[in-house]
Amino acid sequence: MEKYAVLPLRFRKTHFLLIALMLGITSCLNNDKKTSRSVNDSAPRRKLMSWEQMLADAGKDHKICGTFDVSKDTIVLLRGSFGIELSTDHGKTWTWLGKKIFRLNEFTIDDKGTWWGLERWAGIHEPSYCMIHSSVNAGKTWITYEFNTNNFFPFHIDSKPREPLEITDFRSKKIYRLSGRDASHNWQFVKQLPENDNQIADLSVENYFISNNNDNNKLYVKRENGITDTLMSFKKAYNIYNIKKIKNTVYVTGPSSGDINSYFAVIKNERLLQEFTIPGGDINLIKTQFNRIYLNSTSGAYQYKNNKVINIYK
Predict the structure, then answer these.
(1) Which of 11, 106, 189, 245, by CA, is between 20 and 30 Å from 287?
(2) Distance between CA atoms of 257 and 281, rounded to whole angstroms?
């Protein structure tokens, strides 16, 4: 078993406000691609916002970064700003919880029913940070653990819903499993992941893929005989960034071609069945434990159901 230091609460709050101002309420995606710009030292300094001002602005933000099915009627949405949205009537009404938690990157429920939220940032020009938040009362109250990322950096939740919590350490690429509820220690080594060869992998699901070596708005399939066929080109999409599959149906999303909205397509039996324009950017495609398809964007959350895209949160 290994134990990792948890930083004091006073530091967490100060560190949190600085990170929030550095990052802004921007993209839900991982910080893989970032740009920098020079700052004129003589320019007026931006006034520090109060906590109340930040929450007020966050209340107007409809960006959703993730969707999780707790049960067939209970849904958790990861807000693009602070906390989560909880619905116990399958999206008819929502409650904003965890307002003191900054944007969660990932979320799960373990085998004991504990809720876990992962909040992390791998800094390039800014310091890295990582917090794990847990709740045993369906999001009403939370316990926060912050880690020294130089020693231990939980970066990805590997476990499936209703399984013991497992994470990947960012630096060592090792998977650890939590024994008990105290995330400050009791992390047990599970396995070592293979070293990254720094090559960009194709976006794929089973034998269907979007190639990074060719136009990445085309869908390919690799047959059992080794032959690769080009199935179709998504002309209304600028790129395809997400792909999921349920039975004989493939789902893809990406930014639309020519505007600021997003693209969603449904392919059934290797034929293009439907195409949709989803309002807003930063599209995210999610397949949940109940084989439901959700779409998240800067405009809210949507569900694909009965051949329709239904807005469940805006």
Answers:
(1) 189
(2) 12
